[in-house]
Each structure stands twice: as structure tokens, then as C-alpha cells.
Amino acid sequence: MPNVHFGNGQPTTREQEIVEQFLLEPERATHALSERVLVGGPRRATGIRHLLLPGLWALQDSVGWVSPGGLKALCDSLGVPLAEAYGVATFYELLQSEPPPEVLIRQCDDITCMLFSSGNLGVEGSRVGSSCLGQCDSSAAAVVQRPGHGTAIVTESVGASTPVVAAPAGARLLRRIFNGGATTIADYRSVGGYTALEVAIEIGSSGVLGAIQQSGLRGRGGAAFPTGAKWLAVADSLSSTKYVIANADESEPGTFKDRVLMEQDPFALIEALTIAGLTVGADCGWIYIRGEYTLSYARIKSAISEAHSTGFLGADVAGSGRPFDIEVRRGGGAYVCGEETALLQSIEGYRGEPRSKPPYPTSDGLFGQPTLINNVETLVNVLEILHQGPAEWRSVGSAESPGTRLFCLSGHVARPGVYEHPMGTTLGRVLSDAGGVAAGSELQMILLGGAAGGFVSPEQLHVELSFEGARSAGLSLGSGAIVVFDASVDLPKVVARVAKFFANESCGKCVPCRIGTQRQMEIVAGRSGGLRVLDDLDQVMTDSSICGLGQAASSLVRSARNLGVI
Amino acid sequence: MIDGIEVDAKAGATIRSAAETVGIEIPTLCWARNLNPANACRLCVVEVEGTRPLVASCSRTVEDQMVITTNSARVRENRRSVLELLASAVELDWAESELVAHFVEYEARSDHFDGTKLEEASKIHDDLFAREYSRCVLCYRCVDACGDQAQHTFAIAIAGRGFESRVSTEFDVRLPDSACVYCGNCIAVCPTGALTPLTEFVMRTESTWVQERQVVTHTVCAFCGVGCNLELHVQDDNIVKVTSPSDHDISLGNLCIKGRFGWQHLD
Ligand SMILES: Cc1cc2nc3c(=O)[nH]c(=O)nc-3n(C[C@H](O)[C@H](O)[C@H](O)COP(=O)(O)O)c2cc1C
Ligand code: SF4
Ligand code: SF4
Ligand code: SF4
Ligand code: FES
């Protein structure tokens, strides 16, 4: 036990109660005592420190901020040094460490929302700007935080139609959502839910691993890593404790597909994560949901509890004789926590600063144990692979990029929403299937892949949206975000907003990104220096940053310069 | 293979330490001999064949058949930019001599990038030491020294995010109101002069701190039985600072309040 100092701020009775209640919630009580969650790696046998972020959330949502007294009460209970806990609290956008206003409105002013001059969304209060909130299909959007009333999302579709979910060439991942979604286990079972788990139990771990490898599935979280190889690495490790994690932090500007999956088809993610756990030999799974996705969080929590009461989670999963449980974590508002090692740090109760890789999470992951981390969309694909068999599954898409892909269309498009297309569909086709550019305007530019992506000009609409098709055009599919800009858009402003995004979201750990993103933002906004030093910034951020955030922070600026946008 | 030299490194050795065994020096800033590397400054980057980005040699361990280049044009450009970025944000005129030498070696200009600087008022809350975070490069050394790598006091941590990140106590309370026990181990590891004993701070601000006029004498601390080695820095017959050798097996550069500051009351 370190020499912990608990400071002078005294908790109010209310704050003391909140912390006590929080620790008594049934799931906390079991988890706090459960070996399963507590067993740590050699360095991170940190007791119940992983409850720090949920504890900070309990304070935030009840009293509207993390006060000195509230923090003290929490640190007292968890045995975490005050200065460190303060460092964690101040890392996250959605946690306030100063007395809050009555109503705090974090209104999105990111690349899609900035296109629509929006009103006040029907709420009055203190307004601050915000990075993308993942509501771009019904932008404008804001997060509203009120002491005692928690955190809520409000949206208002300005101009555009209500959000669409569509699969013009046939639905796979969106199948159930097409039929109205499945938010209760009865609904889910009635459309074939949990039959993939039956297959998985029947063919066993090696059968599932074989099927995924044959399918050629590659990660949808951005890096396109072969999923089969990752599962195999974790399955093969001899450690007796392993974890599986669904990365649902979805914070890439212009991206909202994982939210739609979780809101309307929550059991699919839970079933897929259960299959992952049984296959690689993990008893405990985690779903890390970005803090702004309050509806996803509620739906996933309720689905987990239904899965428990029907025997699809718990000590004996669906009669397999194997235990599996899922813990849900709410992010605190930090894009970088989508980076897999930052996500691990965040779950463990530390600042979401990426770790050095190697070692990779597959060998040294959560609490130092072998850990499988996959994107939500990647995981949901596993159900389809088991349903159809790998050969049938890979019959759509291309050889290098089999399967379908979810694309998030927003901005000046006629029908914004989530669209499922076979990999390799052209950008032009994807755009026209969404009704093309919004009525009365003309296409100026498309942003593919979010803030970490690049611009595509109207002359390049023939580019094929597969990993290799994008790569050969010097682009990246990234998260599947497609933001459409019509002729009225001031593109340099978009570039400036993206530069600001990276500066705001840099974790601050390494010099190239911490200072580089700040300089890039200042230069692009015309506040200092000249464009001449952008090449030097591009090089040092891309080459020398620790993680993908800094390494991709100059990609749009580079693309804009190549196309003469700035 | 490092810069064409076949190196037979121990398993678990870092690229930096393997290079050191064959006389290749790699510049570092956040790395310190007595702490685990924070891997934050990225001054120590090198090229590793088969890896697209550069690799931090202070923390990356060697692997069989690795082919490493420590001083290519690309590596040098990146190091220069790291230094230039630091200089654009941080006050570095009190920094340790190694850092100053790196600026010369890599021809780094302090005015290459311009923009917002870290603006932080000096924090002097007692008569022992001063903190000036406008000089802080966020190397994490003080945090690690105060935390689980030496002192186990956890009085300070990194707070905030991105360019706004700062070393801070909880809610930025004054040091005397925090958990600090005034061991001064954070001062000992700070490479930039952001943390200084008050004597040094005052002398530096009054321009009476003259490193060239200082001699260092070694002694053993007499306050208790542990036997920490002390280095007394003497300028013009006055003790101006006390440190402890960082390569010493017992104290690893760490001391307690008595060893580090007790001389002020001895005269
Ligand atoms: C700055 C940054 C943010 C990221 N955000 C996400 C995210 O929100 N969701 C996600 O699935 N992957 C994200 N990733 C990628 C993850 O690090 C990781 O590669 C991915 O979760 C692996 O899953 P996959 O193999 O299924 O793609 C991010 C990476 C970086 C560098
Ligand atoms: S690249 Fe940026 S986000 Fe990633 S570790 Fe460095 S400072 Fe943090
Ligand atoms: S003097 Fe010691 S206890 Fe105080 S902040 Fe520095 S290292 Fe921590
Ligand atoms: S105060 Fe000094 S030791 Fe601490 S992080 Fe800053 S530069 Fe490093
Ligand atoms: S010395 Fe290696 S990153 Fe700082």
C-alpha cells in the first residue's frame, strides 16, 4: 500500500453516500470480491483501482462534478492517491473538476455539425464546443450535463431526413436492424439470435478459429489487422487468465455505425463477445463504450442482464459448461481511449495514455494478461461467418477484403445514415445509393475515413472502397466515415477544425504529438508561422509519435495540401 | 546489428543499452538511469528495419536479427524537430548541459516553430524549493520518482490532457497542503530546471549561479544510519545544492528531506 495522502477537501454527506452506494451496487460487490477481475498482471495487481472511472462517473452524474471532497471520499475507498485520481479525472472531457453551471451544453462543432447552422437544440445553459459526438446522421447534436440529472444527448436533424439504415446490395450485419431491431432477448431469439453461439459450442474453439481464419476477416477498427491471427494468438497463450474486449469507443469524427449496432441490436455484440471468450479461453469480457453513447450503454446493460437471466451469460453459458461474464465500462470522453492500449489503461483506472508496443495486448493486455481487443463491427461479423460458413461469407467483397462494410454517410448527402455494402463498392455507388448530394447543391469534396483519413475529390468517385482499393488511391477506409461537402463549404475551415480536433484529443504524452498538434492547429488556423514548417511537423508526428493518433494527425492536412485545398 | 556493427546483446536489453555496449551513444531526455523509461520525449528514436514509424530506443527491447540504424538523415531530422518543438513551447535556458549539447549536435533552432508557449507562474510555497512549469518538458521523471519508482508518496501526477497537461498536485493545491514529504527526489531527476532547490532558483534568477565556479565534494550523510552518499555542490565556499549519485546502488540518486535540505540548517 503506498503512502497515500487524502488531502483536506471534505466530502459532503451526499458525496459520501454516492461513493458508498456505488461500491454497494450488486455488480460491484461481486466484482470487488471476485478473483476473476482482481487477478492482475505482475505489475498491475491493483486491487479495485479499475473502479476509479466508474466511481468518477457516479460523482459526475449525481453532483455534476468531481469535487475535492467527492474525490477524497472515492480515493479513501479505493486506495488511490489523490494526485493520481485528479490526473485521471482531468484527462476526460466529460468529467468536470470545477463547480459546474446549472446546465452545461457541450455542443458538437465538429466536421459534420459545423455544416449545419443549428439553433440551441431546445436547451438553454452554458455552451462549450465539442468534438464529434457520433450523431452525425441526425446532426446537430449536443451533450447536456446537469447536476443530479446525469449526462444526456440531444439531437435535432437540421435540413436532412431522419437517419437511414440501409443495405442496397443485401443486408448481413444490418439484417436484424432492418426488421425493426432486437432489443429484448425474445425479439433476438425470434430472428435466429444465439444460433451462432450454438454453432460455436458445437464446433469448439479450434472450429471457430479455423472458420475465422478461412473467412479472411480483417479488423474494422481502422488497422485492418487479420482477425483470425489475433484470436489465435490469444487462444494459444498458456496463461490461465485472459480477457476479451469489445472496443466501442467509436470517436472518429463522422462515425456512428457501432452506436447504431449497439442501440438496435445489442445482443449481437454480446453473443459475438461471448463466442470470442469461449474460443480464446477468457472468462471475462469487457465492453468499453464511449461516454457520450448513453442509449447504447443502457441497451447493452439491459441486454446483459437479460442474457444473464436466460443462461446466455454466467457460470454455465448456454449449457456449454463454461463460465463467461461481461463488464461494461463508460469512457469519459477521450478519442485516444479508442487506441487499444489507451483503452486498457483507462479500464485499469489510469490516464488513457497509450502504452509502448510491443508487447502487444495479445500477450500483455488488461491487467498484464493476454487480451483480445476487437471493434464492434468486427465482432458482429463473426456471427455471420458462423451462420453462413466462411466460404459463403467471403463470397462477397474482394479477395483481400472479404465481406461487407458499414459506411457512415453524413454531411450534405440526401439520406444520411449507416449503409452496408460489399467491400470494393465504388465511392460513387455508395454516394448515389444514399441519394447523392443533398438536393440543390453540388459535390465539392468527400472526407473518407474521418479526421485520420483524407479528402477525395469528385474526380475520384470511382475509387473502390476495399482496404487495397483505398490504399492504391493513397487513401484509407479508416472507420468507414464518409462526410460529404457541397460547393458552399469553406474547406480550409474543415481542415482547421480537424487540426483542432487532434490538438484537443492528443493525450499529451509524447512531444511530437503534444506540441506538434498544437503547432499544426495554430498554423492551419493562420495564427502563426507559415505553411513551410508543415512538412517538418508532418514528418516528426508521423515518424516519431507513440501511437496512431499522432501518427495520423497530419494526414488530412497533407491531403488538403496535395489537393490544393490549403 | 546496430549501424552495421554486429552486437551480441542480452535478452531484455533495450536498443539504447545494447548500443551503449558498443560505444554508440543515443541522445535521451526522458530516460534516466535510475527510472523506468517513460517513453515520452522521443528524442531517442532510431530506425528498425521492417517497422514503418521510428522506434524509441530507450524502451524498445532488442530482438534477434534486428537491424537498427541510429543516426540516419531521417533519424537526425526527427530528433531535430523534437528539439525544435520543445524549444517552441518550453523555456530551456536552465536545462542540463546534455540537452544544450543536443541542440548543437542536431543543429536545432529554437525559433523554427513558433506559437503559444507554456505560460505558468512560478510556484514557490515554502523555503525549500521552486517549481516553474513553464520550463517543464513533461518527461515524467519527477512523477515516477515521487511515485512507485522511488518515493512512493504520489504527491504529484500529470493532470489535464494534450498541450494543457501539467505536473500537478490534486486540484493544484499548494505543495505543503499535498502529500509531499520534501524528499526532493523530484528535483534530483528534473533535467530542465523546472524544479530547483530554492537556493539554486534564487541564485539563477539573480544570475549568481555559476556552474563553472562550483566544485563537488563527496561525503556520507550523517543524519541516520542508512549511509546515503552525498554530493555537496560548493560555490565560493557555500554549499549551494546537495545531490546523490544516481548510479549508487543504495540510494539510486534518492535522498530524504534531511540529506537534501538539512545543510541549510548546518552552515
Ligand atoms: C487514436 C485511435 C483511436 C482509435 N479508436 C478506435 C475506436 O473508436 N474503435 C475501434 O474499434 N478501434 C479504434 N482504434 C483502433 C484500435 O487501436 C484497435 O486497432 C482496434 O480496436 C482493433 O480492433 P479490430 O482488429 O477489430 O479492428 C483506434 C486507434 C487509434 C490510434
Ligand atoms: S501520439 Fe499523441 S495521443 Fe498518442 S501517445 Fe503520443 S501524445 Fe498521446
Ligand atoms: S519532494 Fe519528494 S514527495 Fe515532494 S513532490 Fe518531490 S518527490 Fe514527491
Ligand atoms: S518538472 Fe522536470 S522532471 Fe518533472 S516532468 Fe517536468 S521537466 Fe520532467
Ligand atoms: S529517451 Fe526515449 S523517449 Fe525519451
Explain what the structure shows.
The complex is a heterodimer of chains A (566) and B (267). Chain A has helices at residues 13-24, 26-33, 35-38, 52-63, 68-78, 82-89, 175-178, 185-190, 195-215, 227-236, 257-264, 266-280, 294-309, 340-347, 376-388, 390-393, 427-433, 467-472, 491-505, 511-524, 534-544, 548-552, 555-562, and strands at residues 104-108, 126-130, 141-146, 150-155, 164-166, 243-248, 284-289, 325-330, 371-375, 404-411, 417-422, 443-448, 454-456, 481-486. Chain A is of the alpha/beta class. Chain A has 23 helices and 14 strands. Chain A is globular, with a radius of gyration of 23 Å. Chain B is an alpha+beta fold. Chain B has 2 domains: 1-116, Ubiquitin-like (UB roll) (Roll), CATH 3.10.20; 129-266, Alpha-Beta Plaits. Chain B contains 7 helices and 11 strands. In chain B, strands 2-1-3 form a 3-stranded antiparallel sheet, covered by helices on one side. In chain B, strands 4-5-8 form a 3-stranded antiparallel sheet. In chain B, a hairpin with a 2-residue loop joins β10 (229-235) and β11. The longest helix of chain B has 17 residues, at 73-89. The mean pLDDT of chain B is 93. Classes of the chains: A alpha/beta (566), B alpha+beta (267). At the A-B interface, α6, α19, α20 and α21 of A face α2 and β6 of B. Bound molecules: flavin mononucleotide, iron/sulfur cluster (3 copies) and FE2/S2 (inorganic) cluster. One iron/sulfur cluster is lined by residues 145-146, 151, 153, 155-156, 180-186 of chain B.
